[in-house]
Amino acid sequence: MKKMLQLMAALLVLAALVSCKSAPKEEKKDLYYGLLGDWQPTVIAGATQTSSLEQPEVSFRDTGDVFGYTGVNNFNTIFRITPEKSLKINPIIKTRRGGTPEALALEGAFETALTSASRFEASTDTLTIYGADGAEVMQLKKLPPKAQ
Question: Which helix (H) or strand (E) holds 6?
């Protein structure tokens, strides 16, 4: 009888271990909803982009930092998001290099679009930023990771 109870207890422990091990792992949730990474604008509201101009880039990091290149100057700032995908980007701090009128116009449109962000949608390779009025202010493509 004692051996039978020991055998049943061992089977119960084994069954409990097997059921715990086979339980599916919980997927890690992307708290940034696809926003993180390096992006380059393909469309900026109010801007004319030409291949002759250096193109802006922006990087969002999990530290809340945003940094990049406006096409003329380097910049940085911070951002906040909510589960509703609202996006707030603080005013930009940037270097003060000069550029052509066309390059400075692109820089101004890029900076305005970025700091007017209110909401965003991100997929694997596309990021769309919307202003407070719901209008699209910028569309960006994902850049490959930079070599370190």
Answer: helix 2-21
Residue type at 43?
V
Cα 118 to Cα 137: distance, rounded to the nearest angstrom: 10
In single-letter form, the type of residue at position 56 comes to P
Residue whose C-alpha is closest to residue 79's, from 92, 62, 65, 67:
65
What backbone phi and psi angles, to 5 degrees, belong to 8? -65, -40
pLDDT over 60 (residue 13): no
What is the pTM (predicted TM-score) of this model? 0.78
pLDDT confidence tier of residue 88, bands split at 50, 70 and 90: very high
> What tokens appear for 77 in the block?
């700032």
With a CB cutoff of 8 Å and minimum separation 6, the contacts of 49 are 41, 42, 43, 55, 106
Element (H, E) at 89: strand 87-89
pLDDT at 129: 97
| Per-residue pLDDT band at 110 (split at 50, 70, 90) | very high
SS3 31: coil
Q: How far is CA 133 from the centre of its chain?
A: 21
Does residue 54 sit in helix, strand or coil?
Answer: coil
